């Protein structure tokens, strides 16, 4: 089992260089596998879209909370750490043109020595996706193409793609990633599980628990088999809270098929408090 830690973006400190440096370095020192950063390209004031992971329909992040670009933040953290995995969770895929995204991801991966993992989502905030120039109803079809474009441009040799949304011929994108960048699909829908099975390297079923996780994993594995892919090669990342996780609870997540636990922390800007919370968590899990 691997254990990742999400940067607590809601506390408004992830764009503070000293704070985020201290947070990430401590995550690495504790023996966690990776640090995970979130994305909102823009937040539209008084958005009407319903946030799907809270009964209120509102995300627990203030509209004016600093949310750094995830890849730029990971590049910063790559220079401050040595072995820590660098992950998105999630990158809002429709907000990005895949040709430029392929270059940016490959650059961070190459310069970090192969530490990048992408977890991508389709986006729930219609206003954000539309502000980025994308018709909200097309984002699923676009995502399938976007993943194909990323893989094509990261492969050796000239890449050609002819699709509904993106077209190019004999394109060369360098540098290449230092390793095969995993692309996990985040989301709680059947469509997300199918996408993970057809094109992804894993699934992070956000907000799902118990039987719903089992159902989504079954959908992913079935879709992988239909696509001629090995279902056993796909990973499953499930969430928990760093202050409440222990080996027994981790074992229950493993029984659901989890290969990684993505840990949230307390919503506190007190860096020392969070460091103590993560240290205690690492001790309970036997990471150090």
Helix/strand layout:
Blueprint: E1 2-6, H1 17-30, E2 34-37, H2 70-80, E3 85-88, E4 91-92, H3 98-112, E5 116-121, H4 126-131, H5 139-154, E6 159-162, E7 167-171, E8 183-186, H6 190-199, E9 202-204, H7 210-226, E10 235-241, H8 247-255, E11 260-264, H9 271-285
Parallel strand pairs: 1-2, 1-11, 2-3, 3-5, 4-5, 5-8, 8-9, 9-10, 10-11
Antiparallel strand pairs: 6-7
Helix pairs in contact: 1-9, 2-3, 3-5, 6-7
Distance between the termini: 14 Å
Number of helices: 9
Q: What is the string of SSEs from the N terminus onward?
A: EHEHEEHEHHEEEHEHEHEH
CATH superfamily: Luciferase-like domain
Helix share bin = 25-40%
Main sheet specs: 8 strands, parallel, barrel
Which regions contain 5 or more consecutive residues with pLDDT less than 50? none
Structure description:
By secondary structure, the chain is an alpha/beta fold. It has one domain (2-285): Alpha-Beta Barrel (TIM Barrel), CATH 3.20.20.30. Helix content is 39%, strand content 17%. It contains 9 helices and 11 strands. It has helices at 17-30, 70-80, 98-112, 126-131, 139-154, 190-199, 210-226, 247-255, 271-285; strands at 2-6, 34-37, 85-88, 91-92, 116-121, 159-162, 167-171, 183-186, 202-204, 235-241, 260-264. Strands 1-2-3-5-8-9-10-11 form an 8-stranded parallel beta barrel, surrounded by 5 helices. Helix 1 (17-30) packs parallel to helix 9 and helix 6 (190-199) packs parallel to helix 7 (210-226). The longest helix is centred in the C-terminal third of the chain and has 17 residues, at 210-226. It is globular, with a radius of gyration of 18 Å. The two termini are 14 Å apart.
